[in-house]
């Protein structure tokens, strides 16, 4: 017999109580956005009852429409709703900070010891696993979104555009958004939002922020507040970019990283996998901050650490700063850590702006959000882009010396086994990566 439903809302939660929870969440938020959102739902809606199911989903629907990591933005939104601006900043920063420190440490170990046979063996096994994971991500998103021939056509066109025509990712996003916009007007049934995170279920009992709890005063929309928030964030961004320009010049590596990852942050519709091709185009091909092999290794590290997957950009920054010896040959770690911090700051700053700027407007209406058709079309295009990323990874993993070089049979076997574990047996990402890494190490040491 289920326990009786609570009839009273929980006691009010202080800022530091919430701070402790957001800090804990930063260390345990594994599993990608779906796992992170499920974790917050279980804890904040069902167990602690800080926010009701309906208000949680309303906030999530808004975050799903934004570029950037939706789980981190959702934590920021709930923190802001509960404890004003500083509550939102604390929730959002703590969601990311543990991952930054862990990734800086792993990036250092990678750069300092990556050539040690045992470590090289681990990385050898990880690469094909990451290829399988990226392919699995395309399948997972595609199965949720590609509900009709129109959306399939967008996905195929996006793949051709980036794979064969080498069109830039931002152009593909804009084109898909435009198709979705016009499609919603002339064929709305084909562009209804596919998938999502479900609808409101039975109530877990009265919550601190319940279905009919009035919007708190600080969350009410006002043009004065809107202008102030916009001005503060613009000054923060411009001040940080200006300081880097003054110190290192516009063409300095740190300044270019700041500018590039600002643009990347505005293009992360559909999650980290969607923007990774853009990061590849810029960081690997254009700026050459790191190699394609290093990028694959970085994605593996990002998959096995807590926090949003887009934190892989911190690895990109670290390797770029280390490799370019920004502070001289005697201080590679300091250069890498500084670059990782710069990249993380400029990648996540827009996420805070979207929540603190748009949150009051979203709180003014608890109805369904409009304009989901462009997002649906963009997400369909993202499927094609991610398949291109999987092809790119597979090429570099299976033919590391190019098509004229030898075919890596062991990598192919590990990749097939990883794909089988993900697709057939629904294994988690972290166990697949760890098992593949150990298999790769054993093969390399015995071979």
Give the SSE map.
Blueprint: H1 15-28, H2 32-47, H3 53-65, H4 70-113, H5 117-145, H6 149-163, H7 169-186, H8 223-248, H9 253-265, H10 272-286, H11 292-303, H12 312-323, H13 332-363, H14 373-398, H15 409-423, H16 429-446
Helix pairs in contact: 1-4, 2-4, 3-4, 3-13, 4-12, 4-13, 5-11, 5-14, 5-15, 5-16, 6-14, 7-14, 8-9, 8-13, 9-10, 9-12, 9-13, 10-14, 11-12, 12-13, 15-16
Bin the strand percentage: under 5%
The value of Rg in angstroms is 22 Å
Parts with pLDDT < 50 across at least 5 consecutive residues: 194-202
Give the ordered list of helices and strands. HHHHHHHHHHHHHHHH
SSE class: mainly alpha
Structurally, the number of domains stands at 1
| Biggest sheet descriptor | none
Tally of helical runs: 16
Helix content: over 70%
GO molecular function, one term: chromate transmembrane transporter activity
Main location: membrane
Transmembrane segments: 20-39, 86-110, 116-138, 150-183, 229-251, 257-280, 309-327, 333-359, 371-395, 401-422, 429-446
Keywords: Cell membrane, Membrane, Transmembrane, Transmembrane helix
């Amino acid at each position: 017999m289920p326990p009786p439903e609570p009839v009273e809302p929980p006691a009010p939660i202080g800022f530091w109580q919430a701070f402790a929870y957001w800090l804990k969440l930063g260390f345990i938020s594994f599993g990608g956005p779906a796992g992170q959102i499920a974790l917050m739902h279980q804890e904040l809606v069902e167990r602690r009852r800080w926010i009701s199911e309906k208000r949680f989903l309303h906030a999530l629907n808004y975050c799903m429409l934004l570029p950037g990591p939706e789980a981190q933005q959702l934590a920021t939104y709930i923190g802001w709703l509960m404890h004003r601006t500083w509550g939102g900043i604390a929730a959002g920063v703590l969601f990311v900070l543990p991952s930054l420190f862990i990734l800086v440490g792993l990036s250092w170990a990678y750069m300092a010891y990556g050539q040690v046979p045992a470590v090289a063996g681990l990385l050898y096994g990880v690469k094909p696993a990451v290829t399988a994971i990226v392919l699995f991500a395309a399948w997972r998103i595609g199965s949720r979104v590609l509900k009709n021939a129109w959306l399939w056509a967008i996905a195929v066109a996006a793949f051709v555009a980036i794979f064969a025509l080498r069109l830039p990712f931002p152009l593909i996003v804009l084109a898909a958004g435009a198709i979705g916009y016009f499609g919603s007007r002339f064929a709305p049934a084909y562009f209804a939002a596919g998938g999502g995170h479900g609808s409101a279920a039975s109530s877990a009992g009265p919550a601190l922020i319940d279905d009919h709890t009035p919007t708190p005063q600080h969350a009410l929309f006002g043009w004065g507040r809107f202008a102030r928030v916009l001005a503060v964030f613009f000054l923060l961004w411009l001040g940080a970019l200006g300081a880097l320009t003054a110190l290192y010049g516009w063409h300095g590596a740190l300044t270019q990283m700041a500018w590039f990852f600002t643009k990347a942050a505005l293009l992360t519709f559909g999650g980290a996998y969607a923007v990774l091709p853009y990061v590849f185009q810029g960081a690997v091909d254009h700026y050459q901050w790191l190699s394609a092999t290093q990028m694959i290794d970085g994605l593996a590290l990002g998959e096995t650490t807590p926090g949003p997957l887009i934190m892989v950009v911190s690895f990109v920054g670290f390797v770029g700063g280390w490799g370019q010896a920004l502070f001289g040959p005697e201080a590679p770690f300091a250069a890498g850590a500084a670059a990782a911090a710069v990249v993380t700051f400029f990648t996540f700053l827009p996420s805070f702006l979207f929540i603190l700027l748009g949150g009051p407007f979203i709180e003014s209406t608890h109805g369904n959000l409009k304009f989901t058709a462009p997002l649906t079309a963009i997400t369909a295009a993202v499927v094609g882009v991610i398949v291109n990323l999987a092809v790119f990874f597979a090429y570099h993993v299976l033919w590391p010396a190019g098509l004229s070089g030898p075919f890596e049979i062991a990598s192919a076997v590990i990749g097939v086994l990883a794909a089988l574990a993900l697709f057939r047996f629904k294994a988690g990402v972290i166990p697949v990566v760890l098992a593949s890494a150990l298999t790769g190490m054993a093969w390399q040491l015995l071979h």
